[in-house]
Amino acid sequence: MSGPTVDEARTADDRRGVGETAPWRYAVGMFGTSIPINLIKGSMILYYVDILGLDARVYGAVMVVYAIVDAVDNPVLGYLSDRTRTRWGRRRPWLVIGAPLLAAALIGFFSAPTSLDGLGLVIWFAVFAILCEALDSLLNANYGALLPELFPVESRRATANSLRQGCQLAALVISLALTPLLTTSVLGTEDTTEGFTRTAIIYGVLAAGVIVFMALGMKENPRYDATERPRFFSTWRTIVTNRRFWQIGIASACYGSAMALVLAGLQLYVRYSLGLPVANALYLQGIVIVISVGGLWAWTRVVRAKGAPWAWRAAFVVLALSFVPLYFATSLITAIGAGVLVGAGWSGMLATNDLIVARVLDEDAELHGVHREGLFLSAFGFFGRLNGVAVGVALASLATFFGYTSGDDPGARPDQAFRFYLCVYPFLLAGVGAVIARVITVPGEEDAAEPATAEPR
Questions:
Q1: Beta carbons of 342 and 292 less than 8 angstroms apart
Q2: What is the pLDDT of residue 16?
Q3: Higher pLDDT, 383 or 136
């Protein structure tokens, strides 16, 4: 008979800690963290570039600057979280404080005075974009670090992850699919900004309430508070010399950037490429999300049958191929048909990508005996923040290739511009990610290379 697996060898203390927080209570937090950032990603190009007239090239430049700032603040936020020791736990204080701050920043982001133009508009956009992303990083570094802590056994972790991804998809129904209808028809009009401000207020209050509800109800493992506090530079040395960090991080960035392009450009794809009112994005986004919800159940079964690495690689391939029919869609009906495939690939990535990252965190804790999930996830978060660079560069490129600079100056071919933006760029990114995922190994695979020697803490 074979010996115990890594999952089975977890301590009794860890298992008791897991049982104290119900998976649904943890999972619902993702509903709250997803609403603000996806409202921003899904509507900021329409709001700032197409309605307020911010130059697409300036938008791209701001996104590049943000990535540099974010490369600094992400590790710091994760490091502070890992070193926090309070009677309320390590992660809870950050979540309770950060939630209302993000709500306030979200409202400010979508409350730019219509009188602003030129440099004033650029400054408003840059300040609130950076503030919102920094607070989102703060919340997600702490929220994400709880997954491997609360659920150390991968089968239970997969269930918790699927539940939280389902909560994220429910949030997307609101923050993406419902938003175009609210901002342009119910609470505002196609060409004004009042609907965005009102929507941001509603979403901000809702998101903050859900995050605080989750944080007050979950129970961190007290055993982790007694572990050694990680040191910043030695931890960073360990992270940047870990080949798995770079391999899996770059693959994850390809997936994240592909979907960021889709979320940011879908409303303008509907307006220009399909020639329909923006409110029709509700139907296309809705079918993608509905398929993704059902796909989570199916992909979780695949994870249990084939393992997370196999399912992760398969999901990458499905996602990449799904952008081909979307490129050739010419009506809402054909676009919805292509959206079914996009939803299938996306749900596969939602069900597997965080499990692959969590394996890297598990391996690090086993090698070094220090729980530094916050800093590790913040480091991975740097790759996630490359999404903004990808969106900015891709949007700026439309001015060069198709003449689109803003809603005031869309050029002669805005339909082709956003067909290229929404389909070709994501296809290339997801394809590169699929290749990387195929040629690397992840922690826990039988044929994995020997892990790197533990570094001093």
A1: no
A2: 43
A3: 136
